[in-house]
Amino acid sequence: MSLVRIFLEVYLLPQNLSLFLGDFLTAVWGEPIVNSASLPEKEFQQEIGMKPKVIFVALLCLLCEVAAFGQTRESGRGRGQEGGRGRGQQAAQPPATDKVTPEIAGVVKAGTKIEIVKFGLGGTDAGMGMSDGSVLVSSRGSLLKIDPDGNATTLVENTDQAAGLAIDRKGRVIAAQYSKKVSVLYPKGSEEVLTDSFDGKPYIRPNDLVVDKKGGIYFTDCYQIGATPSPNDLPQSVYYIAPNSHKVIRVASDVRRPNGITLSADDKTLYVNDWDGAYLLTYDVQPDGTLKNRKNFGKYTLKEETDHGLVSGADGLCIDSAGHTFATTPAGVQVFSAKGEHLGDIEAPYDMPPQNCGFGGPGNSYLYVTGRGVVYRIHTLTAGVKDRGK
Q1: Per-residue CA distances from 173 to 125, 162, 184 (Å)
Q2: Would you list the DSSP string of 50-71?
């Protein structure tokens, strides 16, 4: 393999692009560009030193192609490529500012404005409301606090790939991280890894989480779309970290692809989005944190195309104080009643699925929605669960 092709593949360019650039530069050079396996070390070094100008041109081409490829990956993969929840993808165009909601009885009035709070953040997730009316989002590896006027403050520069966020009764911000762990991120000085493995194996990719009133933490663990499972991997599951400990138990492994997760206001019911299914699921929470009585709670509008048919593509999940649940999906934000009736969908103000949601703002009565570098909000007729944020 030529040096150029090795370099290209290290930078994760597609194989056909690597081959094309390698062959193109070979044509410019006039001969194959340094097959490192076929030359002794001394001759290899001499060959490299012979043509620095060509190497400079090669590197310049490489940098241009890496930049172009990165831009393509960021904006062109479409709905199926989620990082969970295509994370990191941005909307191709600025979000529309003239969108309004339909009438959803008991939830939102017809014609309620969809307010754009912030855009151009370069990938957003979470959307957890705080008691001061602000909302926390994870964005491009950082933890941001966004006030009701859209002013953003960075709380944590490097979150180690945080996705979903939650807050406990101690005021600690806890994250599910794609780097295969669940950790306390904030405030400064409280940072701590709560769990990074189960039964001696690393997690797949922790996605979302919620904290109960006792301080226990439920979190989902699932594959990124398009990932190739290994037989040695843990199953896609829901886990529970017991209060004030690092003890972890697996509480559900019967969800095809568990994603967004939240609790009822009384902590008696756990709700789980199934990205790869047709139903929002519920479980009865037991005193020790284990789960029983899985139910198909609400049927999604199905718009995510897969090789095995239409599925929900359901990503983030939040709940209000009246028991309405809100799931972010390719159909927009899907709203369900406390009994699981599908009440309606609120389309996103851009052409990609939203990723997560939570409640915040004045009176805790704004539904905040995040995704694709955008944060927007909708004034609702009910408030979020107190001190939950989602």
Answers
A1: 14, 11, 6
A2: H-HHHHHHHHHHHHHHHHHHHH
State the amino acid at position 299 in one-letter form.
K
Query: Given the structure tokens 């709905």, which residue do they identify?
Result: 79
79-97 pLDDT per residue, tens = 333 344 444 566 657 899 9
| Co-location of 52 and 195 in the same domain | no
User: What are the DSSP E strand ranges found in 74-161?
Assistant: 114-119, 125-129, 135-139, 142-146, 152-156
Radius of gyration for the chain, computed over Cα atoms and rounded to the nearest angstrom: 23
The edge-to-edge listing of strands for the beta sheet with 325-329 is 317-319, 325-329, 332-336, 342-346
- Quote the domain boundaries for residue 33: 3-75
Structure tokens at 156: 């944590």
101, 343 contact by CB (below 8 A): no
Residues 367 and 364: their CA atoms lie apart, in Å, by: 8
Q: Pick the closest to residue 302 from 314, 318, 316 (CA basis).
A: 314
CATH no. for residue 266? 2.120.10.30
d(Cα 128, Cα 207) in Å, to the nearest integer? 15
Distance CA(30)–CA(13), nearest Å, equals 24
| Model-wide pTM > 0.70 | yes
**Per the structure block, which two tokens stand in for 157?**
């520069």
What confidence tens digit (pLDDT) does each residue in 306-362 have?
999 999 999 999 999 999 999 999 999 999 999 999 999 999 999 899 999 999 999
Do the Cβ atoms of 220 and 271 come closer than 8 Å? no
Buried b (16+ CB within 10 A) or exposed e, 86-121: bbbbbbeeebeeebebeebeebbeeebebbbbbbeb
The residue written with tokens 């001061």 in the block is: 132
**CB neighbours of 288 closer than 8 A, spacing ≥ 6?**
none
67 shares its domain with 125: no
User: Is 240 found in the same domain as 136?
Assistant: yes
What number is the average pLDDT over the span 98-127? 92
Residues 147 and 368: their CA atoms lie apart, in Å, by 12
Give Cα 196 distance to the centre of its chain: 18
Two tokens, residue 326: 């809100």
Residue 128 lies in a domain: yes
Q: Collapsing DSSP states into helix, strand and coil, what is residue 30? A: coil
